[in-house]
Each structure stands twice: as structure tokens, then as C-alpha cells.
Specification:
This protein has 11 helices and 7 strands. The chain is an alpha/beta fold. The longest helix is centred in the middle third of the chain and has 29 residues.
């Protein structure tokens, strides 16, 4: 199929994990995918898979502007869909987050997605149709301790996407949220790197809890239990992009379904107690490690 006959999709954050899996999966379904990555060294492997690539750092307005112009030129001004996938998790207690650290979390997870969407929307309006999908999280509606920066960025993303969806009603442009729970990816390894760079664990009143958190972040990632492979997100993305009537929200993984259901039934205090109980083991080291 010629390029001009294929629907066009931009995905941010395609170096690994969900972004890369979704880029390859949508390409196999006949989409012309522009895979955005932050680093030049990630371009080659994606290009070898047949993907078209763009340098796209969503924390950099100049990078967003250049990437959109590159895609616009390559497609003749047609962009059918955008998947705002780029993001990272900044672990740490709220009281240990500096203003700069919190701002960096929002620059990537929220402000970049907002700016990229706003630059693509005029192209969709001109065509009279489009799909904008935000990769949120179960933590976009159910906050867990020691994830305050990430919780806040995803809660804000949900509010932004909900508002955008209502504002675009009748335009032919649909907005959806995908809300995954645990997915196998480089997420935890990247989170640990940001924790080391931005949190002074030794000086924190939460230092003992941090020891247990580091143990979790550095443990091998595996599929099983509540953790699913990134193909689970791809399945929801396919529906959001190709169905005649895309859903406003797509749950992925058991924790998202469970917490989404219980949030509608329980009081805030009861929900707090449940979420604290569900994550208690994350803040507690095994006895033999506590003695070290």
C-alpha cells in the first residue's frame, strides 16, 4: 500500500516497551507509523524494523515543533492519530520532591503531551477527523504512596484529556485514555535511575521504606500475576484507533479493573486503607535484610 493510502499515526516514547510494541503492532496493521524517540542512537533499530522515525523529546518545545513539521512535510499535512505515550515515573515521598523534580515529571508526562496534541489538532481539524490517545495509568485515578510525582502527573493528564474530549465533541476528533497497571518494560529501571538522581534517601524520614522500594525497583521484571506484556496495551490502542466508536477509557490489567470498581463503592478513607494495605509489602524489607 502506498504511503499516502495508509492512515498516519505518531507515537511518542518508542525506544522500548509500550511505545515500541505499539509502533510495530500498528505498522503490521497497515498504519504508517512515525515512531518518536529522544535519542539518535535509538533511531537505527526502529528504522531497521521498517518504521519511520522522528527525534521527539516531549520535554523540549523545539523538538516537538521540528518533529511535527517533519511529519507534516512527509505526509502532506495529514495526521490521522496521535498516541501520547512518552513518560517516566519519579519515585519518592512527596516531602522529598524538589520543585524542579516535580516540574520535570510534569514536563514530560503532561506538558509535552499537551503541546504535542495542540500542534497536531489543527491538522486533524482540517481533515475533519482524528484520534488522540493518552497513555495514562491506574495511578491516574488511584494514588499509591511514594509515587506522588507520577500520581499527580497522571491525575492531571486524565483531567486534561476529559476536558479535551468534551471540547472536541462534534469535530470528528475522538480522545481516549488508556489506563494500564503493571506492564513489563524498562519503567522500573528508569524510575530507579530518577530516584538515585533526585531523592536524598539517606536524609529522608522515609529512608527505611526507601530501602524496600529500591529492592522492588531493582528486582527482575517478569510477566505473571498482575503484570502483563506491552501487547495488552496494543490491544486497547487498536480499538481506540480503529473502532467506529472509541471508548473514553480503556482499562488494562487486573489492578486497574479492581481499583476502578472499588473507587466507585468505597469512601475515600476506606480506599486509602485498601491502597495502603495493597502496597504494604513494598515498604517493608524481609527480616534478614532489616538486620543488615
Amino acid at each position: 500500500m502506498a504511503d499516502q493510502e495508509r492512515p498516519t499515526l505518531i507515537i511518542s516514547g518508542c525506544s522500548t516497551g509500550i511505545g515500541k510494541t505499539c509502533a510495530l503492532g500498528m505498522q503490521q496493521r497497515g498504519w504508517r507509523v512515525f515512531a518518536g524517540v529522544r535519542r539518535e542512537e535509538d533511531l537505527e533499530s526502529l528504522q531497521a524494523s521498517g518504521l519511520e522515525t522522528v527525534l521527539l523529546d516531549v520535554a523540549d518545545s523545539g523538538s516537538i515543533e521540528r518533529a511535527v513539521e517533519e511529519v507534516r512535510t512527509a505526509t502532506g499535512g495529514t495526521v490521522d492519530a496521535l498516541f501520547n505515550n512518552a513518560g517516566f515515573g519519579q519515585p519518592g515521598a512527596v516531602e522529598d520532591l524538589s520543585r524542579e523534580t516535580l516540574r520535570a515529571q510534569f514536563e514530560t508526562n503532561l506538558f509535552g503531551a499537551h503541546e504535542l496534541s495542540c500542534r497536531i489538532l489543527p491538522l486533524m481539524r482540517a481533515a475533519g477527523h482524528g484520534r488522540v490517545v493518552f497513555n495514562s495509568s491506574v495511578l491516574g485515578f488511584a494514588a499509591l504512596p511514594f509515587r506522588g510525582a507520577y500520581n499527580a502527573s497522571k491525575f492531571a493528564m486524565e483531567g486534561l484529556a476529559d476536558t479535551l474530549r468534551m471540547e472536541l465533541r462534534g469535530s470528528g476528533i475522538h480522545v481516549s485514555l488508556i489506563e494500564p497497571g503493571p506492564i513489563t518494560s524498562a519503567f522500573r529501571a528508569n524510575a530507579y535511575r530518577h530516584f538515585q538522581a533526585n531523592i536524598d534517601a539517606a536524609a529522608s524520614p522515609h529512608r527505611e521504606a526507601y530501602r524496600a522500594m529500591v529492592r522492588r525497583l531493582t528486582a527482575p521484571d517478569s510477566v505473571g500475576g498482575f503484570t502483563l506484556p506491552p501487547e495488552a496495551v496494543l490491544k486497547r490502542l487498536v480499538h481506540a484507533l480503529e473502532s467506529r466508536r472509541p471508548r473514553p477509557r480503556y482499562y488494562v490489567t487486573t489492578p486497574t479493573y479492581v481499583f476502578g470498581y472499588l473507587r466507585r463503592l468505597l469512601s475515600t478513607r476506606m480506599m486509602d486503607a485498601l491502597l495502603l494495605r495493597a502496597t504494604a509489602s513494598e515498604r517493608r524489607l524481609p527480616e534478614e535484610e532489616r538486620r543488615r
